[in-house]
Amino acid sequence: MRVIPRRSRDRPREDPPTAPGPALPGEATTAVLAVPHDEAARRRARAAERRREAAEVKRSRAGRRPGRARGAPAAQVGAADRHRSALLIMVLTLGLLIAAVVVTGALIASSMRTRPVTLAAPLHIYPVAQATPGPCPAGTKGITGQGDTGPTCYHLTQGIAIHKVADLRVQKSRVKPGGYDVAVTLRPVDRHAFAELTRVTVGRDLAFVVRDRLVTLPRVDMAITDGKVIVTGSPNRAAANRLVHDLKGR
């Protein structure tokens, strides 16, 4: 025979909840305190205020960054672009003005250095046919100068006369260290005749004569077609300055 328990009768009785009594010594208890409604609201307000302040700081930093900031108004971006373009144009214009001033100054200085020099007396340049010891006899087409062995007659052929030169100056010697040369730059109108003269006298002397006086007797090493004549042989600057003075006919 089986005995089937009756559930309704055998279910244990549930005691009604009772208020918690005082905790016994050594027994752990947990107390839950409710937060007042006003205090919670104030906390939420402070948190929202901090979020707004952080967002404002972030926007301020983004506005100070160079270049186009995200969300920047189109008018501000356009104004910045126009300002940069105007500044670039101003810098380029200033650079062009400075370059123009430099070029103009260089041209003026160059023109002043090459200002034509009017000679006080014509400079006659003659090819020397031959040289004989002693003064030139009367009626001889030549000029007497001082040679290595004393007075010498230099027999001359047809030459040219120069009244102005483009430049006439003393410069340091390019051949002899410590020496000085005299540089003569002929005008274009005289360059062709001088080039023809030097072509037929390579290896011979040219007599530079001013007021029937032999000033210098340079040897032609090569044909001079650019009108730039370099007279070498002055031992010092004083001698070169005297040669320039004599060539000018002073």
Q: Could you characterize the architecture of this molecule?
A:
The protein is an alpha+beta fold and 250 residues long. The protein has a domain at 116-124 and 160-247: Gyrase A, domain 2 (2-Layer Sandwich), CATH 3.30.1360. Helix content is 38%, strand content 26%. It contains 5 helices and 9 strands, in the order αααββββββαβββα. The strands form 2 sheets. Strands 1, 2, 3, 4, 7 and 8 form a 6-stranded antiparallel β-sheet that branches. It has a 3-stranded antiparallel β-sheet with strand order 5-6-9. β5 (167-172) and β6 (180-185) form a beta hairpin. The longest helix is centred in the middle third of the chain and has 40 residues, at 74-113. The radius of gyration is 55 Å and the shape is rod-shaped. It starts with 6 loop residues before the first helix and ends with a helix.
Question: How do the strands and helices of this protein lay out in sequence?
Answer:
Blueprint: H1 7-10, H2 37-64, H3 74-113, E1 117-133, E2 142-147, E3 150-156, E4 160-165, E5 167-172, E6 180-185, H4 188-199, E7 206-210, E8 213-216, E9 228-234, H5 237-247
Antiparallel strand pairs: 1-3, 1-4, 1-7, 2-3, 5-6, 6-9, 7-8
